[in-house]
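Comment thread on ticket #2218

A.B. wrote:
> Attaching the input chain for the structure job we discussed in standup.
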Amino acid sequence: MTDEFNDTRQKRLREAEQAETEVTQLQPLAEQAPMLRLEKKHHERQQTKITAMSKARAAAQDAKVKQGKVYDLLAYAAVAVGELYALLIDIDKHRKDAAEALAKADRVDYDTELEEVEETESSLGRDTSGLAYTLAARHGDQVVKEMLEELDPGFDLLRGCNLDDPLNRDVGALVVKLASSEYVPSSTASVEPSTSPATAPPEA
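C.D. wrote:
> Ran it. Output below, let me know if you need it in another format.
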């Protein structure tokens, strides 16, 4: 039993001494591990920075090249917007001219109707002092709007344009706003009423 014990212990001693030797040999290398990990981390960070800076320089250069095209494109866009603005101004003027002409026609109808009703009422011995205001309810700005709508049903400054496209819609709305301060995007847009037809007769 003693020989068996000694043999086992001897074997373990050799193994322990071999391990001790290996540990002694590896200990300096193991002590370098923290420093090597730090160097690796620093290297990875530097590589990340180098890559990021390279991308930044490339992106900045691309932006510089494309920005060089802005001058010409802006000039083209300005011309196009200017032409659109002038066209909308001209359209708005024609609409106002039409409204003014219709207002004169409505005035003729109003004067004719007033004269006829006054003549009839006078022949019957009735008071005609309030007829002007009573008949005004059937004339004036609202009637002019309706007459203008009949001439061109559904008119709108941006009629027929592709307003589903956000860029078209935004540019169109901006130019329309600049061209016509009174613009209302509806089929009845024309001129703003200046008086209430129920309380005042149409102006001559």
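A.B. wrote:
> Thanks. Noting for the ticket: Helices lie at 2-31, 33-67, 70-123, 131-136, 141-151, 166-179.
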